[in-house]
Amino acid sequence: MNTIMRKSVLGIAGLAFAGGLAAGPLNHATTTGTVESAMPAAVAVQADKPAVDKAKLIPHGVQGEQSRIALGDEQTANVKAIVAATKKAGMDERAAVISIGTSLQESKLENLGHLGDRNDHDSQGLFQQRPTSGWGTPEQITDPEYSTLAFLKGLKQVDGWQDMPLTEAAQTVQVSAYPDAYAQWEQQAADLVAEHWNS
């Protein structure tokens, strides 16, 4: 169901419920003596999670062609860990989009250990952070919460990160050999934040 139609349906349901409370219980009480039958409607309306402001997720639109991958259970758990760590850091949804987009590029949201000869130096974890570059120990940077908080600490030090395209903000923290590669993941990262921010 699209967002506008969904909001309309919820709005009508809310009005109907509010109207029922204003007029219904008085009449209902005379026949049954209780208003408990109105309670399930309240639970159904309250159970719906608030929508994320999508304008905040991609404030300047995406840059270039977008890529998308299907996520497995481990990758979805890592998305949720990134969202939780972003909230713990006191940062907003845009920071989560940048973090998830960065991890999509660096590791496809997989918490990678040292890959030997296939490794870029000693890069590990969701963000491919390097122990020898001061990101933390291998144990720390392969912990999704720690690695996300380390990335966000770097992001906070970037002046104006909130107004930068994802690829520029990510590159300023990561210093990648492929600085434009982050841009392709912005739409999927925004979709994942919209899905999991309030779940």
Give an overview of the whole structure.
The chain is mainly alpha-helical and 199 residues long. Helices cover 56% and strands 0% of the residues. It has 9 helices and no strands. The longest helix is centred in the first third of the chain and has 30 residues. The N terminus is likely disordered.
Short description, anyone?
The protein is mainly alpha-helical and about 200 residues long. About 55% of the residues lie in helices and about 0% in strands.
Give the topology:
Blueprint lengths: L2 H30 L6 H9 L6 H4 L15 H16 L4 H15 L30 H4 L2 H13 L9 H9 L11 H11 L3
Helix pairs in contact: 4-5, 4-7, 5-8, 5-9
Overall structural class, as computed from helix and strand content, comes to mainly alpha
**What's the number of extended β-strand segments?**
0
SS summary, helix count: 9
Radius of gyration, taken over Cα atoms and rounded to an integer in Å: 22 Å
Strand content: under 5%
Which blocks of ≥5 consecutive residues have pLDDT under 50? 1-47
Spell the H/E element sequence: HHHHHHHHH
Query: How can the largest sheet be summarized?
Result: none
Helix content percent band? 55-70%
Task: Indicate the mean pLDDT.
Answer: 78
Distance between the termini: 18 Å
**What is the 3D shape?**
globular
